[in-house]
Hints:
It is a single chain. The protein is α+β, with helices and mostly antiparallel strands. It folds into 2 domains: 6-80 and 187-246 and 333-391, FAD/NAD(P)-binding domain; 124-182 and 249-330, D-Amino Acid Oxidase, Chain A, domain 2 (2-Layer Sandwich). 28% of the residues lie in helices and 27% in strands. It has 10 helices and 22 strands. Strands 7, 8, 9, 15, 16, 17, 18, 19 and 20 form a 9-stranded mixed beta sheet that branches. Strands 1, 2, 11, 12, 13, 14, 21 and 22 form an 8-stranded mixed beta sheet that branches. Strands 3-10-6 form a 3-stranded antiparallel beta sheet, covered by helices on one side. Strand 16 and strand 17 form a beta hairpin. The two termini are 39 Å apart.
Amino acid sequence: MVMATATAIRTTRKAFTCQSLIGSDNLPSLNLRKARMPHARSVDDIIVGQGLAGTMLAHFLLQAGRRVLVVDRAAADGSSRVAAGIYTPLAGKRAALLWRAAAVLDFIEVFYPALESELNARFYFPHPLLRIFKNEAHRAAWQRRREQDAYSCFLGAWLEEAEVAEAFRAPHGAVQVLRSGSVATKPLLDCYRRRLQAQDALMEADMVYEEISPGRDGLRWRNIEAERMVFCEGFRALGNPWFPALPLRPTHGDILTISIASDDALPIAHGEFFLVPVGGNRYRAGATYLRDTDDLRPRADGRRTIEEGLPSMLQLPFRVRSHEAGIRPTIIGHHPFAGVHPQLKSLCIANGYGSKGVLFAPYIAHLLTEHLLRKQPLPAELDIQQYFKEQT
Length: 392
């Protein structure tokens, strides 16, 4: 079945008017403890979505002793599972320094190894990223960053064409970006899903907004009572009637798994496209960016774009093994966002990580947990309150 377009989802969101949108003064008190439904289940937190955002938040809430229920589609078809899982402190043609890069990296460089040990699994692969320059202007932009103190700690060896591995085509040279690497997202999410299932903390279901009844002192969803619900639903938040002000844009991306005939393992590289080793002679290659669509199907023109573009940076022959696609929840010109609805305190959200989920999801989940449980303020640039203020 072909999914609705992003425009149609926004239209649906506007058409669904809830009393809860009017304001907290009009909300009934649910009196959850006194008026418990027959056979109702009670939890502290319902998390909608088991992508990176939802999984990381579930992890920290469970660590804090909360009773958590994660609700996720049985198909488990979110962009987190398709993602290449690259993380790096610098992004874009001009090597922009990402939000709180040093603090975020300090956090995940401890967090991921600890999570690997806890889950008895391997999915975290720190390794410098080889940034291949596309032209002289691209090289000059990165050269200027090299001269700035805030960037110098993230930039390693500056390589001329002859110094770059023979597998790559780099006539304008390259640079190593330090404190980079990759996270194998699908094994991580699958492993954590099994943990949630073992703890009876996962329900496979589609979230229907009309089934949610928020009140001043909690909420009900189906026969489940909870203190709060946190939406970590990626691009599907476009249809969320309680958070219409958030600047979320769905961005379709195609990604290929390829095999390369090489005796030597190649590093993570990024030129016209990225290349990420996944074991043996196989690599993830991509990705494309097509905005304002939520059709999850892989696109033939996306595959063609990657296949035709890879030879601009890769000199070795390759063979396509699989073709997948996902919809990234991107925020144009903004940071990711998280926080509590200004009137409905039982409704919260964490979203907008785009292609940087493996970098931001653990750190923001930790900040949000501290905010929800210990009233620690969120960074102003992260807090969703800024978007509600813009509407008033």
